[in-house]
Amino acid sequence: MRDSTMAAERLFRRQLARATRGDGSIDLDQLQQLVVAWYEDSARDRERTDRAISLMAEELEGANRRLEGLVENLRVQNLRFEAALDNMLQGLCLYDRQDRLVVVNRRYHDILGLPPGTLVPGISHAEQLATEQAAGLHPGADLQKLLAARIARVDGQAGPAREEIFTEDRRRLDVAAQRLPSGGCVVTVMDVTAERAAEARAAAAGRLTSLGEMAAGLAHELKQPLTAIALAAANARRAAERGDTAAALVRLGRIADQAARGGVLIDHLRRFARGGESADADATADVPAAVEGALTLMGGALREASIELALHLAPGLPPVRGDGMALEQVLLNLLANARDALASSRGGPGGRIGITACQAVEGQVVMEVTDDAGGIPSSVMARLFQPFVTTKGPDRGTGLGLSICHGLVTSMGGTIEAENGAAGAIFRITLEPAPG
């Protein structure tokens, strides 16, 4: 302000000097003109300044309106984001790179049975587990070990780490976690109880269908011990009539052996038709036992079709995660499909089926069922595990067998895939080893 006053004084002195005559007198007319000109210049300067201030005010007002629009748009987008999160079928938790909760939706609370607002952004994963345990979840668990196991599982996989857990009320939850490029982590939880129940019903129907399709082979399997029993009984009777006690006892021993053989088959049929006793998150399956069970039911049909069986099971295979009867059903379906493919490709009996099982370097157990029937058509390969997809005629099969197999293997935490080899189809099952 002082600088502008001094500048005005200097300007006035210059104008006064211009209006001063040589004799020191002042030319009032000239001074009046100079003062008027100075006043007009000042008025124009003020006008320009006012216009500049008005333009700045308009710009600020426009910027403020744009900012208010952005804030409102952000608020609307945030509401839409929250609505989308809360209407998801899955529960969701998002963590930052410091392992702190950033976002948690309402569905996560609903699935885990937590009151709304129990979990709030900003808490650590460890604090979240403690809050969940206080609400009745993770009973008896060592939370530090549980958190370390979760982190190790997520960091140890390139894609999502998945597992199914059981709640105390026997609900099945599918949990998936994946590391983000930013270093954070996203976790989704979904209640799959109804889905698994539907899959169980489909699997039960599939087992009964398989038993119906194997009726002829099973009848043959039962006929053999019954024939042997009848023959041994006749021989034992003759031996008893002639007083040969030793020979009669030998025949009676054979009768007991054949009756036990038939009893084993019938008992296995009963257990197979019933399926697993119950869903158990800690269930384990013995691979050689599952293969033996499948061959118990399918062996007669393969022999009747003159199919050569090549069996190679690596010694010391560990138990795998999942239900043994489910694995047996998968193998049974694959063997039946291979038998039908061989009959179709050859127009009659013959062919070769291979079953192999070994442990991969990563620890998983890898099983393969192969045949030399020529392979799977490329038009079907991409849809092979979808429901109602089949290469059989309309009078054979429902197209649900491989779909059921896929569901059973997935529920065991494994994978199943198919490809064509040099001679025929290759079905590869990869299963996780049982904990411990």
Topology:
Elements: H1 2-19, H2 28-86, E1 91-95, E2 101-104, H3 106-112, H4 125-134, H5 143-155, E3 161-166, E4 172-179, E5 185-191, H6 193-213, H7 215-241, H8 245-274, E6 284-285, H9 287-304, E7 308-313, E8 320-321, H10 324-346, E9 352-359, E10 365-371, H11 378-381, H12 401-411, E11 415-420, E12 425-431
Parallel strand pairs: 7-9
Antiparallel strand pairs: 1-2, 1-5, 3-4, 4-5, 6-8, 9-10, 10-12, 11-12
Helix pairs in contact: 1-2, 6-8, 6-12, 7-8, 7-9, 9-10, 10-12
Description:
This protein is α+β, with helices and mostly antiparallel strands and 436 residues long. The protein has 3 domains: 2-79; 91-191, Beta-Lactamase (2-Layer Sandwich), CATH 3.30.450; 196-431, Histidine kinase-like ATPase, C-terminal domain (Heat Shock Protein 90, 2-Layer Sandwich). Helix content is 55%, strand content 16%. Strands 2-1-5-4-3 form a 5-stranded antiparallel β-sheet, with helices on both faces. Strands 7-9-10-12-11 form a 5-stranded mixed β-sheet. Strands 6-8 form a two-stranded antiparallel sheet. Strand 9 and strand 10 form a beta hairpin. The mean pLDDT is 79.
Termini separation comes to 85 Å
Broad shape:
rod-shaped
Q: What is the name of the CATH class of the largest domain?
A: Alpha Beta
CATH architecture assignment of the largest domain: 2-Layer Sandwich
Number of domains: 3
The chain-level mean pLDDT equals: 79
Summing up helix and strand content along with how strands pair, one would put the structural category as alpha+beta
Percentage beta strand:
15-25%
- The helix content, as a percent range, equals 55-70%
Please compute the radius of gyration using only Cα atoms.
42 Å
Helix count from the secondary structure assignment: 12
Task: Return residue spans where pLDDT drops below 50 for at least 5 consecutive residues.
Answer: none
- What is the N-to-C succession of helices and strands? HHEEHHHEEEHHHEHEEHEEHHEE
Q: CATH H level of the largest domain: which superfamily?
A: Histidine kinase-like ATPase, C-terminal domain
* Annotation, overall tally of beta strands: 12
Largest sheet: 5 strands, antiparallel
The CATH topology of the largest domain is given as: Heat Shock Protein 90
